[in-house]
Amino acid sequence: MTLSKRREFGLEFYEFLKDTNRTSIKNKSKLRDIYNNEFRNSDGVKRPNFSSVLYALKLSNKARVYSGQVHFNPTVREYYLDQWRRPTRSVQNGGLITSTPPVHNGVQLNKYTVGVPSSPGPAQTASTQNGVTSHTPRRDWKLANKILKMYNSDRAELISDRRGVLITSDHPVKDGLIKFSLESVTEVHIVHLFLKNSSSSPLLFTYYSALHRMSCFTLQDTQKVTRNNPLQLAPGEQYEVQLQFRPKHPGFYPAALVFEFKPPHSSSPPSLAFHLLRFVEAQCVTSLARELGPTAPYRPRPIMSAEASLRYIVEDGEQPERGLCRKMVAISPSLWSRSLLEGGLTWESYKELLQLLLYLEAIQMEVDIKKYNMTKSPMFRDKAKKSLLVLEVPGVSENRPSVLRGDSLLVTKWGEGKEGKVLVKYRGYVHRVELERVKLGFNPKLLSSFIDGQKFDVEFTVNRLTTRLQQRAAELAFQHNLGNTLFPSGGTTTKTPKLQQLWLYDKALEQNPEQYSAVQNIVAGSSRPAPYLVFGPPGTGKTVTLVEAIKQVLKTKGSSHILACAPSNSAADLLCVKLLEHLEKRKLFRMYASSRNPDDVPTAIVDCCNMGEHCFVFPCKEELMKYSIIITTLLTAGRHVFVDEAGHAVETETIIPLAGLLDPDNGQVVLAGDPKQLGPIIRSPLAIKYGLGVSLLERLMKVSLYQKEESTGTFNNRYVTKLLRNYRSHPSILKVPNELFYEGELQVFANEMIRNSYCNWEHLPQKGFPVVFHGVAGRDEREENSPSFFNVAEVEVLMEYMRKLLQGQGKRGLATISPKDIGIIAPYRKQVEKIRKALKIVGSVEEFQGQERRVILVSTVRSSAKYIQTDQRFSLGFVKNEKRFNVAVTRAKALLVVVGNPLVLRGDPAWDRYVDRLLFCPPTVETEESEVQQQLDPEWRNEL
Ligand SMILES: Nc1ncnc2c1ncn2[C@@H]1O[C@H](COP(=O)(O)OP(=O)(O)OP(=O)(O)O)[C@@H](O)[C@H]1O
């Protein structure tokens, strides 16, 4: 159980002590007895033992223990029990709070009308019994849990006025919900709630509270009603409770309020109590937020109904210009058996099992893509190229559906499908993919009769090429005898190599013995035929080691042919740019697939790649052999094959460049990556279950050859190098990922001046600790037909940080910074689009793996838990995806700002530990624990 959960139980116990007037008890064994006998198993919730709970309280400075006595920290009450912010000052004794600026200051509030009671109400006496002022309604955990459980089935009843109680308000109430909106954080808004006994007998109003804590709200009433101090409502009598909303930040703040009533006999048992619920949705929306808000309400595209059983013919369309394109034949698995699936991956089962898993994956892709079929979708002529038609495909930029240049889809004129008639389906080829639309090339037969805005039914199709390439690679790997490479034992390895002394291009690497030895071993080919692995956490120099090794292989063996690959275009481009630092352009060739958008080619690479006049061209083999290095993505792919970010790729993707190209005896494969960062994206649950989600790098790392030798406790440098010196980040940025994912092994080696450049930034909650977690109560919204999410409140907070960063630069000893030193990472395309409206420097996590910036701002977007499963399924978002989370928080050198809703994020174990460690454990040795809590805005600290 996490520390935060244990702490939560501890605080809940403290609350229980308060409720039963026993906070004066300090004796540890007595408290343990109360905990065990009365609290621990009182409501079926599984709670940890007392010591474990006490330990969590101690760690978070909420309790101290000495001489067998437990002393609860007085701030426990303020921070925790008082989840509804305590009034800052009272108007009169026992009166209603009117903290500044009061909206209804001076208005009378009493039992029947709004006013201040002339004398202290009975609550004063009751609440001071224990020497503690406890009139602010506190949360009843048991009740909150009970209501949350009932909520799904009994919502209608919970919000209905019952047993003579009517709850009305000065705001409109629709379906139990009160909504209102403010324009600025300086405003305070009050909602008056009137509780009326409309029955013919008296009733007791016994309790009110909120189901969730949210400190921007305050609830209050004049009589300070509690269960110890109930209020009798005579027939026809009305009583007012006020809700005050005072947001600190723009955002969306939902709340649920519960009101408890009972028959008026003092002896009536608690079971006779009944509860009414009201919901509140408060918003604070600034003008920027309005501008960025949904352009139109979200309306998912109508999905095409199940395929009609009509006869049809297909009219082929116009393909985009591209080089030679060889059709590949589909491979159906020859064997399909449970024993094959369950037998695990061995060299004997390699081809059959991988082909079967790829087949399962392809079936899942077919099923998935059908869900995106659209009906009644209009198309328009492209203004720039009249022969193309433009179709809106919301979500295409997030691969929902996955459509690339060169893929095709089928359209039918809407309303044409009639029984007995042969339907014409027109195949449209994708010429260009834009944010939410594609440009399609169709048959002239369609174009000649096309009217702008004409509506069509659209069927998406899966491009089988990628699966087929991988299936073929599995087959070729077998044919070309790559068993010793893919299942290395070390037994077949050639004699111990002689390592040469090398003069590295990047002198910094000579100072790092692991990097230097990795380069030496790669140059000597010492692991052959086994692959050489370079693995290690973020920022440890895997890519630069790989790049240096490539340069050294070329320097020492001039005739070598090297294929350098990465799973994504951005990672392959990065390799290319780094290689160009010391190599002549003529030696190097970056080969793009025809599906790549030519506009996305970085300028540094334009004149050493396969970009032709209008499209990418594919030179013949002889032409290609003139180059020393060819750089491609794995799917687009020697003697030497280098693969960067190998942990991100499916095994069969990684073997595409090996199978058929690698000489099994003399070829050298080098894989660099980190299995704790982005992994393969697989849709089929069966394929995942039986191993397709494991990259070649990850699988090999479990082979004994690549593991620490027991006798020495070290890795065998001949086959593997583990890099542990991080050259990127300030220790505070690394602290939590290091503990979560790397067993604390990462060492800080980043340039001191750069990594410390934000340690004194005035906006840090704590000096010397350049990590900020900024809690935002936003709302994850969608607009129009797009399935992608955005969160305007988070954009606003990001903009605020951008302003602070750019305005503050160069001042008070801070380094100057330009926008290119700042990166913003968001998990959804729509959020990226919204942020781009103001800035030009954002990208998705995939684009950021392998990259770094001086300052990184992360927007997590998710603010409601209900979409988290969808995120998991589509490998989107940061919640419930440790690897994406790890990549996002390890890109910054000097300052990391994470903006998100901690209540939602904490539903994920990794985030929970992250927020927990940031908040409750000293991030650096010299930090005071109490100060660490300042890392989070106080408003949120109360919520957690
Ligand atoms: N020996 C070294 N001395 C100084 N700086 C280094 C050294 N090795 C790497 N670096 C620097 O560290 C940073 C991270 O390097 P690199 O991108 O190669 O790491 P990585 O392990 O591939 O990271 P990630 O897994 O996060 O993509 C770069 O700025 C690089 O120049």
Plain-language structure description:
This protein is of the alpha/beta class and 944 residues long. The protein has 5 domains: 3-81, Arc Repressor Mutant, subunit A (Orthogonal Bundle); 133-285, Immunoglobulin-like; 312-332 and 365-466, Elongation Factor Tu (Ef-tu), domain 3, CATH 2.40.30; 480-723, P-loop containing nucleotide triphosphate hydrolases (Rossmann fold), CATH 3.40.50; 731-941, 3-Layer(aba) Sandwich (Rossmann fold), CATH 3.40.50.300. It is built from 30 helices and 33 strands. The strands form 7 sheets. It has a 7-stranded parallel sheet, covered by helices on one side. It has a 6-stranded mixed sheet with strand order 4-5-12-11-7-9. Helix 1 (3-19) crosses helix 3, helix 9 packs antiparallel against helix 11 and helix 13 crosses helix 14. The site of adenosine-5'-triphosphate has 20 residues, from helix 14. Adenosine-5'-triphosphate (ATP) binds at residues 508-509, 511-512, 515, 536, 538-544, 674, 677, 727-728, 849-850, 852.
